[in-house]
Amino acid sequence: MKVKKKAIVLTGGGDCPGLNAVIRGLYKSVKYDGEWELWGSIEAFNGLLSDPINIIKLDDEKTRGIHVKGGTILRTTNKGNPLDFPVKDKNGNWTTEDRSQELVDKILALGFEAVVNIGGDGSQTISQKLFEKGLPIIGVPKTIDNDLSATDVTFGFTTAVQIATDSFDKLVTTAESHRRIMIMEVMGRDAGWIALHTAIAGGAEICLIPEIPYDPDIILKSIEKRYDSGKGFVNIVIAEGAKEKGGEVIGKSAKDSGDANFKLGGVGMYLRHQLEKRQNFAQVRTTILGHTQRGGTPIAFDRILATSMGVKAFDMIKEKQFGKMVAYKNHRLTTVTLKEATSSYNYVDLNHYLVHTARKMGVSFGD
Running DSSP on this structure, what letter comes out for residue 110? Predict the structure, then answer.
């Protein structure tokens, strides 16, 4: 029997709807080809760096029907950067060390001829560094924030917007019934795409995003104008990374061992307190969607896009297009170099047509 070539796939960073569809699309392509076999590393690169290693061979049973499931069958983590890997010293204190060369050497020694890293900006930055060290790696873009500039859209984003919009629609009716100011906080660390799309789809009066620092007094004027006109309720969508003019983002350092990430969250409550200090004619309530935006079944668009990206990733393996990432541009799948993929962040351009659309619809950005 002819020995098959080996590829390994992993999912890193935050989970999002569609990860399993990529894995399934990749596996189906590998099976169709017949000359390769596909393995998966558990919890991103941690599975390969652990002792003993924690990797699994993917087969029909493990991948059957997973395209409709949220999360990832390979599990994921944001605490496994091989270039800055968390380790505990002899005194019990956490520090970091560069284990990237060890990782590359181990993957090659295990006989893997291709690695597929499914992840966002941080994950693909790691991919580029590992590629420079000689690892045959390909990236698949993943982020609900839609913050990778080299692709028009990332899978998971559209599902996150749909979840946020469904939730926002429910808040509109209760806001109207109680004549309240309703604030809904959504994800969006540095890019406000989820908030912007949700505001337009849901008909928000106010949309606050990281790219446009807000003035609470301007927000209050927008609220007063609406109440004075007899509408009597206001719905606000705010990205977790939004901040007041001259202020800082709201959040706190992670408490988990080995996790150096700053955790955003709480700006919705902060805004509520600001508004409650400035007016007494309306009750203010806050809803934080949090991780509900990451979970659940991906909508059809994201299943299709993710599956297609999995298939494209194997095409790239066959063509030895290592050091590149799958990209979706002008309704077509293409490739870009990992360096290009991570060279610039996909912020909301203040001249973007959706910002223009929102302003024409009467949405205030607090500026």
Answer: T
Provide the β-strand partners of residue 41: 55
pLDDT tens-digit profile of 263-301?
788 999 999 999 999 888 889 999 999 889 988 899 999
Predicted confidence (pLDDT) per residue in 103-160, tens digit: 999 999 999 999 999 999 899 999 999 999 999 999 999 989 998 989 999 999 999 9
From residue 284, give the alpha-carbon distance in Å to each of 117, 164, 181, 229, 268.
Answer: 43, 19, 5, 19, 10
CA 127, 154, 145, 143 dihedral sign is: negative
Q: Of 206, 179, 157, which is closest to residue 18 (Cα–Cα)?
A: 157
Q: Furthest-apart CA pair in the chain: how many Å?
A: 79
Q: What is the pTM of this model?
A: 0.92
The vertex-157 CA angle with 261 and 180, nearest 5°, equals 85
Question: Which residues in the chain come in under a pLDDT of 50?
Answer: none
pLDDT, residue 262, reads: 74
* Amino acid symbol at 88: K
Instruction: Give yes or no for a contact between 325 and 308, defined as CB atoms under 8 angstroms apart.
Output: no
- Token look-up 């010293």 returns 89
Per-residue model confidence (pLDDT) at position 257: 57
Active-site residues, by number, are: 145
DSSP state of 209: -
pLDDT of residue 259: 61
Structure tokens at 187: 């994800």
- What is the rounded CA–CA span in Å between residue 222 and residue 225? 5
Supply the angle between the helices 193-202 and 353-360 in degrees, to the nearest 10.
40
E strand spans, the chain:
5-11, 36-41, 55-57, 85-88, 94-97, 112-119, 137-141, 181-186, 206-208, 234-239, 251-253, 262-264, 284-288, 324-329, 332-337
Which domains occur in the chain, in start order? 5-155+298-329 (3.40.50.450), 160-294+349-360 (3.40.50.460)
Residues 29, 143, 84, 81, Cα dihedral to 10°: -30
Q: Answer yes or no: are the C-beta atoms of 298 and 70 closer than 8 Å.
A: yes
